[in-house]
Amino acid sequence: MAFDIQKALTELTQRRDAIKKRAPLCANGEMSLEYGKCAQGDMTLFAGISCLAAYYAGDQATYRARCDDVANSQGSNGRWWRGPTRVDIEDRNSFSRDMLKGVLAYFIVEGIYNQDEATRREVREKAIRFVEFIDGEGKGRMCKEATDNRCNITQGSGAQLYSVLDQLGLIEELEKRNIKSLKKWSKHLEMRNPLIMNVLAKLSPLGFQTHLSALGAFLDHSVNQNGNNKLFSKHIDIVYKKDPSNPFYSFLYQGATQDNIQKALSICPANRIPWDQLSLDYYIGPHRASWSLQRDMRQRFFEINDGHDCIFILNLLIADLNGNIPWSRRNHKLSQCPSSKEYLGEHSGKPVCNMASGSSNSAKCHNLGNQVFTSATGEKYCLKSKKGWYKALKIKAACPTGMIEKAPYHNYPVCFDPHQNIGLYRCKKSISNVYNSQHNTCLIGQFGWFVEVPLNRNICPEGYEYIKLGSDNKPICKAPIHPKISQSRCEKKKRAFVYENDYCLIDKKGYFNIRKLK
Predict the structure, then answer these.
(1) What are all long-range contacts of 477-486, with beta carbons under 8 Å and residues at least 24 apart?
(2) What's the whole-model pTM score?
(3) Which end of the chain is more exposed for a tag (fewer CB within 10 A), N or C?
(4) What backbone phi and psi angles, to 5 degrees, belong to 426?
């Protein structure tokens, strides 16, 4: 059944809008991460990426609200805080590299994508003040007190910050202002090469560390607008394989496919699950909420998701179906499927295309090891040349027990047994459908294709039991009624001779058992 994109868009939009009604907010409409109170511990991160996803989806209300949340989290001295309610409340761990990703997402949307020049100028000024705080009052750190190094600019975060500043067109201005950290961050760009990113993705524990790794790729390609490069491909492949059930990782890996849409809808109910029906096997406070996409999905935190994570992923899927994410793998790979053939995802770096009709030659690679893979729904897909995977044609028959099944032809199996070859005359007598492969084969009724006996070989007559193939490639046959002939009879026949003292070769018929003379 063809993928109904309009139907999927309607379902995603309706679900998103229903979830908006239950997603917790502060009294002034700012994002909250916990029901019952205005909690904003990691708000700058989640509001920033929500702002970016909403922009892609054209969700103006969410886009404006979440971008404002990030903007309002900046203090008068340029530093950023965890949320608007945390501004100028000096305590330990008041910011982190996680929060930086939310600020960068905000920079990308309002400083690069936004078409209003006044807004872009305002955001560039905010970015300059932030960098000046880090380089000056912050002494190279994004906050003053921390229990660990979370406020330090590491090589990876420094490289990503520099890339965004470059896209904002601020490098020359920052150099004029003698920002000493700028040179160090530029050197960190080498940390964003595919090899290092792949290693870091592999080493990151499943959970929020893997989520941050995925966000790194998400931001990289929101800046560069290019999903067809090694950094994106290898990095996100690793992240996806760690937890294929995570709809955010699946979105980065394949885009808005039918399967990924169902993953998101399954963890994003319109209404929250009542607490007494939760399947969590450990206790979480009665008002606790969670950005479930940063969790190991096996922990089932999505049962208590705060709703903002669902709005985020549903907006990404909506945007992708509308073709508004140019770096998306769905939009990149879609053109590689034949016209009107649905793109279903990706397998081993190749697009998976749904062939609704039997027009693919995919059956040719049936049962050829890694040339075929089985999807989660049990359907077989065949690698057609180097282009991609196509829905395999169902084989109409199977080879008899004990025979070797070769690559199918015209939906019938090609069957081969070195001891049970079919005579050429039988092929032409039963049906004229003969095709050439490595061996000539013929179609026998509805059983499949069998390897022909070459023209210069004899065969067993109709009804005679085949025993084995002689050393000269002629069949040894046993008659059903008179299984033996006398040696004298054999010797009297023209064009006959005794073979191995046990069989008589009769020309054009084959070998027959010899009855020993008394």
Answers:
(1) 477/509, 477/510, 477/511, 477/512, 478/512, 478/513, 479/512, 483/512, 483/513, 484/512, 484/513, 484/514, 484/515, 485/512, 485/513, 485/514, 485/515, 486/514, 486/515, 486/517
(2) 0.68
(3) C
(4) -70, -40
> Structure tokens of 205?
């524990």
Q: How far is CA 287 from CA 24, 32, 282, 301, in A?
A: 11, 12, 15, 13
What CA–CA distance (Å, rounded) separates 297 from 309?
13
CA 459, 464, 468: angle at the middle one, nearest 5?
60
Q: Return the amino acid letter for 280.
A: L
Question: What DSSP state is assigned to residue 307?
Answer: S
Per-residue DSSP letter, 111: I
In this prediction, residue 518 carries a pLDDT of: 43
Cα three-residue angle 134-140-145, rounded to 5 degrees: 85
How confident is the model at residue 408, as a pLDDT?
60
Give the sheet arrangement for strand 350-354, strand by strand.
342-347, 350-354, 388-391, 380-384, 372-374
Question: pLDDT per residue over 484-501, tens digit each?
Answer: 666 666 766 765 666 566
Least Cα distance to 270 among 18, 11, 1 occurs for 18
How far CA 364 is from CA of 35, 73, 442, in Å, comes to 57, 60, 16
For residue range 266-300, what is the model confidence (pLDDT) as tens digits?
999 988 766 556 555 444 554 455 788 988 888 77
Return the bridge partners of 469, or none: 475
Average pLDDT, the chain: 77
Q: Identify the segments of the chain with pLDDT beneath 50.
A: 1, 227, 281-283, 286-287, 357-369, 418-419, 424-425, 430-432, 438, 455-457, 482, 517-518
If 0-12 CB within 10 Å is exposed, 13-18 middle and 19+ buried, where does residue 325 land? buried
Q: What pLDDT does 431 receive?
A: 47
The phi, psi pair for 257, rounded to 5°, reads -85, 165
What are the residues facing 305 on neighbouring strands?
290
Question: N- to C-terminal Cα distance for the chain?
Answer: 74
What is the C-alpha radius of gyration for the chain, rounded to an integer number of angstroms?
34
- Measure CA 215 to chain center: 17
Total residues belonging to the chain: 518
Q: Which pLDDT does position 480 carry in this prediction? A: 57
